[in-house]
Amino acid sequence: MAKDIILRIEDSIKKNWDRDALTDYKGCTLQYKDVARRIEKLHIMFSEVGIVPGDKISLCGRNSSNWGVAFLAALTYGAVPVPILHEFKADNVHNIINHSDSKLAFIGENNWENLNEDEIPNVLGVISLENYDLRISRDERLTYAREHLNELFGKKFPNRFEKNMVSYYHNNHEDDLAIINYTSGSTGFSKGVMIPYRALTNNMEFADHALNLKAGMTIVSMLPMAHMYGMSFEFLFEFMHGVHVNFLTKVASPTILMKALADVKPVIVVAVPLIIEKIVRKAILPRIQDPKVRLMLNIPILGDRIRKRICDKMTQVFGDNFYSVIIGGAALNKEIEQLLHDIGFRYTVGYGATECAPIITYADWKEQVVGSCGKNVIHQELKVDSPDPENVPGEILTRGLNVMLGYYKNEEATKATLDAEGWYHTGDLGVLDAKGNLYIKGRSKNMLLGPNGQNIYPEEIEDKLSNMTLVNECLVVQRDNKLVGLVYPDQEQIKNLNLSESDIESIMEQNRKEVNPTLPSYAQLISIKVMDKEFEKTPKKSIKRFLYQN
Prior knowledge:
By secondary structure, the protein is α/β, with parallel strands linked by helices. The chain has 19 helices and 27 strands.
């Protein structure tokens, strides 16, 4: 087993003491020594109120430097951080804090204004993520510690706080519980995934081999840190290497993101497909949709030059300083991926799950096979439960160091997901080629049955439909045993073209007529319904399907 996660955090702080560590984009910056000082002050508060290793500490708020510090403080104290997605509704936040048995909670302003302190009666206190002030305190020791924090810090370090004084909790075993991360998927149910230290350590060891990061490099953190994908590969891994993490504290719209990427010039870009697809459609597709350009792309020498120009433009959009754009969390649109491949853009598509903290498969961009999401990572086995794994989709199973301990206080769900041989049943469907490359076909729970029992994967239909005129987002559902496409149209194009409702309906009917011949007869759409607002999504930007089934 590689060096444990806490020791790596400790070593990085010491080695990078005077380097920039965490920045709120367009806001304040903390150096590694500042992070260390704030961690010590939070440790004092934990100690004074009687927090012990193994106690749970919740965090709920937008990405920020203070969120990162609070998380590191809990982890290095030996406590168990419980990150809660700031997009969760108040009743879900209440439930997670209570279900996780959290003793303390760090809550951001935007979330706190919607919460009810009476609904979380068992926490000793709630601490602001803006300035670490107490929102509520139910223990005099906590109140005293916060009011006299500088005094207590001075007593602990009477002369000066130096890097050689940084020393954290190291009595954890590799199978001990490190984090409880509550899921937020398309099914609507939240389960507390128990992540052990070995899973964090092995994910970091994988990243050590896959990504060559060095101290002083920069990255933009755009994914929620309360999700394992963002936490592991936009924060923890970078922090351990002395990288300067820049947090987007606002919603990562294409405009905001493109400006941040241009300013920061990150060494890697970690993103979900929806973000990549929107950037491509905004910055690249308009350049190649001209019939003349399409014609020239087929001319050998001229086509190569145009593709290079397009690739250069795409590279500039992402800051012009990255090794690779790493895409995960959901399937990438096939047309978009083929375009990225054809122009020689440095991208790769990985696959994972919260239950694996999160990585299962990956391939370097130089080895990426179009349509696949790579091969199993180190210390992680992979198989497809199918009589013919190369041709017939089956459930994707994995086991190894990355796999969770189970679901917190949910033995039934644990037994349904982890079998006696240690295989984690992902619920995803896929095939494996002869070289071990994994191809995702969809979620087993999403699979629909055709009129004669045929397996229909709605994701494959959606992939085609999303490339049609005016389609911004789409979902395929089954109504009265018929397939219906739900489409949220491109509002910008509608406005620019001054289209009426009847115009939009006509275009969608034409889309239906164009897409159906590309589909098997049992998988064709009976109609397309236009939605008046965007689909509700998970933090990975996957549509919450369960909301649209009826």
